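tool=predict chain=A
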Amino acid sequence: MNDETMLLQRMERLAAALERLAPRTPAEPDFETAEAFVWHADQQNFEAVQHVNRVPLGLLKGLGHIAPQLVDNTERFARGLPANNALLWGARGMGKSSLVKAVHAQVHSQLAKELSAAGTDLKLVEIHREDISSLPSCLSAMRGSHHRFLVFCDDLSFDKDDTSYKSLKAVLEGGIEGRPENVIFYATSNRRHLMPRDMVENERSTAINPSEAVEEKVSLSDRFGLWLGFHNCSQDEFLDMVRGYAAHYKLKIKAEELERTALEWSMTRGARSGRVAWQFIQDLAGRMGCKL
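tool=predict ok
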């Protein structure tokens, strides 16, 4: 074996090693496999979700002034009409993320025939908070699709040293490409401006131009044309939630006992919310030997 042959063999092995190290080209997403997906930034792909964890819209009590607005906005988007990005903010456990998933299910069901006739569908895509910086890649993969996408990020917020909010601002509004026509973005957050108050106050006290610094921080929330505020529920609203769940799942318990045990449960938790009501129902069903 001469030197030239050995050199060629070594080069072939080197080329093969580099191919193994090189990142694989992401496969083309197949959006026909499901109605919901989760975006994975590290793999640059969409994982199909065959069963979405959600409850019917009718079970979400205390949202009578909020749900219709989100349903209307989503219906307009599904039909190809102008619609706004939505920010659902406020008290924890009051059904922000549950509302997004329930609204998608209702609109998807109501407009199924209409969308099918138009050769399209309304897909739900979840992107995790830590993957927000990859949102441009996510949107790029959906831009050429004939489907319409509701991109959803739960518990969206940014801390002091986090600069990914800048890329989100450009994607939602203001970038050269902007948000694709077939994509809308819904986010939930406990913070109205997506950032803690002390972060904004720190900018106000340390920046050369305080007003400009604060404007940069809070302008992200301005990219959401629809703001929906969630507030702590009253005792009557909490009991209404409990009664709604109990009736839906046919739990055989006297009304007086249901209310008494529900209030005891809420006092042990130190809170009243949709989440606490659901946790109580899970505990009650378990003690009664009933499956939900």
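The longest strand covers residues 183-189. Residues 235-288 form one domain.
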